[in-house]
Specification:
The structure holds three protein chains of three kinds. Chain B is mainly beta. Helices cover 13% and strands 53% of the residues of chain B. Chain B has a single domain, classed as 4-Layer Sandwich (Double-stranded beta-helix). Chain B is globular, with a radius of gyration of 18 Å. Chain C has one domain: Double-stranded beta-helix (4-Layer Sandwich). The chains are: A mainly beta, B mainly beta, C mainly beta.
């Protein structure tokens, strides 16, 4: 399977080229365009493993449970163009047996024997200032495709690194983390606009996004028609 | 102090590499991520009156954050909306910025509030404009891509598309067409700029985004 | 591609800007609120373009009834246009054929071009808030926007696109809207506004422009930030 990133970093789309028998699993709704020799079916869990679904798990946009589209090429040289819901970038990450914790709306697609588990509860949602975020644990071997709001930049953590909680896209589970305040004093942190931050420790890859949706929403919201 | 604007113009962000003792001043809520060696402290931005005026009439926060380190590290600064960033190096001169455009500056730059005149109020930008002066770099941003125009005589700009301008530019509010035309034509009040001088414009306007969004909402 | 109006599309592909340079006496017609800047030698007038019928047709297509007409009344000058959202702008020159255009994509056109929402086969084609197509014909220039980035596809044979991502296509293409078995019409596309999970199958030869994002997920997401009526 070949892939190509197009239109980076503002409205990135991914074009896949699949040979007969090859397949890819995508977030439901991600398909933009495709060749006619691809079949698609929908499941509520990952193909590879047990992958649990938490009842009542809400997605940020639609309140749907977490559903997946599996595309399979019935002929050779089939192409599939996918894109995420929000403006922003995409990145490819190769998993070789390890585990990546991915922000729920940032999981876009994966291949191979990657298990997608939506039951990960490492971050208590109370710590994320009321946002209904959920996290997806991806493990196994294969290609992982992530999306972001904003541009994506990777950080190879070796020691310690601090990220505003709204800017985390994904991180390897070899990293430890703790939620804390950004500045020297708690009051300073809140008044200075930085709420809570996540301090990562150890060694591993961390993907950050340059922008965060709630800041944008809170600025634009007051200018909109009341509901 | 090394600083680089990345990912222009769609999701521009500023990565600042700090050495021991160096400091950068940034708008509250601008920090996306930073090395653990960076210390962040919050300071009240200017005198009580000007800070409050800016908060209620402009759109800058009352607080700014200062980032510094005793060793070495970087901080990534961003803005709330998608868009571009630009840098101006002041050398004793002054620039006026529209509210909401300020992102960061070197500590040697003076941040103040300037009176934009009663006739700029109805453009939705508030009574004030941010005045930056002194010596040092200022980083500002906008929703959209940033581009410049050298104005000789007169030019008409939709108010939401003006980001920054030199003090030699004269700005005046007016109607786009005749009274009837403006009201129905979607172009409301516009800003007439008179040169000579340089203006910074943005290729989108936040009010334009709000209007477009509203036209699609129930 | 030839053009009637001298123009430049800059700052592509994400926050593109259209600059039209008018000769003395020349005109350009644009979506209301599209103007970002203009020379003072130009006059701007709002009005019903092309008579009531064609304007009503355009209103059916989702465009507002009023377009602004910019005329270089006091000498040559320029006018700069931009949409409200992030995206790219394309130019297409019509010389006898037609261009089908998603509502909301229209930005500006020159004299000699008619844009209408009422054309044979238009009504009832797509349900609810779904894709409504405008038809642009005549001799002249038309400028349209994409939400997100735009990809030009030279269709030769068979190609399937989710209807929300269609920006424009030449009328030499045949098209057929269906649902795709197995493609659940849900996820971030089944929302507040629409996203039926419909796909359009194009056949034949012709150019097709698709966008890499779709406005409905953004509109659904921004809803939570709207002020409530009691505020």
């Amino acid at each position: 399977m070949k892939y190509q990133m197009l239109c980076r970093p503002a409205a990135t789309a991914i074009r896949f080229q699949l040979e007969q028998g090859e397949g890819i699993t995508c977030e439901v709704g991600a398909m933009i365009a495709m060749s006619t020799g691809l079949t698609v079916n929908t499941t509520s869990k990952s193909r590879g493993g047990s992958g649990g679904i938490i009842k009542g798990l809400k997605r940020m946009f639609s309140g749907e449970n977490f559903f997946l589209n599996h595309f399979t090429a019935q002929q050779s040289n089939q192409s599939l163009l996918i894109g995420p819901a929000m403006m922003g970038d995409c990145v490819h990450h190769t998993l070789t047996g390890g585990t990546m914790i991915v922000q729920g709306t940032s999981w876009l697609a994966s291949t191979g024997n990657i298990e997608i588990d939506t039951s990960w509860q490492g971050f208590s949602s109370a710590l994320f200032s009321g946002e209904s975020m959920f996290w997806v644990k991806c493990s196994g071997a294969g290609d992982l495709f992530l999306s972001s709001y904003g541009a994506i930049y990777p950080v190879q953590v070796n020691g310690e690194y601090t990220v505003d909680t709204g800017h985390i896209v994904a991180f390897e589970d070899t990293l430890q983390f703790r939620i804390g305040k950004a500045g020297k004093s708690l009051i300073g942190s809140f008044l200075g606009g930085e709420g809570l931050v996540c301090k990562f420790q150890g060694q591993g890859t961390l993907y950050c996004q340059s922008h965060n949706p709630p800041s944008f929403g809170k600025l634009l919201g007051p200018k909109l028609r009341p509901r | 102090m090394e600083a680089e604007i990345r990912n222009r113009p769609a999701f521009a962000n500023l990565i600042v590499n700090l050495q021991a003792g160096e400091k950068i001043v940034a708008e509250a809520d601008a920090m996306a991520s930073m090395s653990s060696s960076i210390e962040m402290s919050t300071r009240w931005n200017g005198s009580v009156f000007s800070a409050l005026a800016r908060r209620y009439l402009g759109s800058e926060s009352m607080f700014v954050n200062e980032f510094t380190t005793s060793s070495t590290g970087h901080v990534v600064l961003t803005q709330p909306f998608p868009g571009d960033m630009a840098c101006i190096e002041l050398q004793g001169n002054t620039m006026f910025l529209q509210p909401g455009a300020f992102i960061a500056c070197e500590p040697s730059v003076n941040l103040g509030l300037g009176w934009a005149g009663w006739r700029s109020y109805f453009g939705g930008e508030g009574l004030f404009r941010l005045k930056v002066s002194g010596k040092g770099r200022v980083w500002f941003g906008a929703y959209g891509a940033i581009f410049t125009r050298d104005i000789q005589d007169e030019y008409i700009v939709d108010t939401g598309h003006l980001v920054a301008y030199e003090p030699s530019i004269n700005i005046r509010l007016g109607l786009a067409g005749g009274i009837f035309s403006s009201f129905f034509g979607g172009e409301g009040l516009v800003t007439r700029v008179k040169g000579p001088g340089k203006i910074y414009m943005q290729s989108r306007s936040f009010d334009g985004l709000a209007a477009w969004t509203n036209s699609h909402l129930y | 591609m030839s053009a009637t109006l001298e123009h430049e599309i800059s700052l592509r592909p994400d926050f593109s800007l259209l600059t039209v340079k008018l000769q003395s006496g020349q005109r350009v017609h644009a979506e209301p609120s599209a103007m970002a800047a203009m020379s003072p030698t130009l006059d701007m007038k709002a009005g019903l373009k092309g008579g009531a019928l064609k304007s009503l047709g355009r209103m059916f297509g989702g465009e507002s009834m009023i377009v602004n007409t910019f005329t270089a009344a006091r000498g040559a000058g320029e006018v700069v246009f931009a949409p409200g959202h992030l995206g790219d702008t394309q130019h297409y020159h019509l010389s006898g054929g037609s261009l089908m255009l998603q509502r909301g994509a229209f930005m500006a056109h020159s004299d000699g071009v008619e844009v209408t929402g009422k054309w044979q086969g238009a009504k009832g084609f797509f349900s609810g808030e779904g894709l409504v197509l405008l038809k642009a014909s005549g001799q002249g220039d038309i400028f349209f926007n994409s939400y997100g980035a735009v990809l030009q596809i030279d269709v030769s044979g068979d190609f399937m696109v989710d209807t929300g991502y269609i920006v424009a296509f030449e009328d030499t293409l045949m098209y057929n809207v269906t649902t795709l078995p197995g493609l659940r019409g849900g996820g971030f596309k089944r929302l507040f506004f629409s996203g039926e999970g419909l796909v359009c199958r194009f056949q034949g030869q012709g150019k097709l422009w698709i966008q890499t994002r779709y406005a409905a997920p953004y509109l659904s997401w921004i809803h939570q930030f709207r002020p409530t009526k009691n505020n």
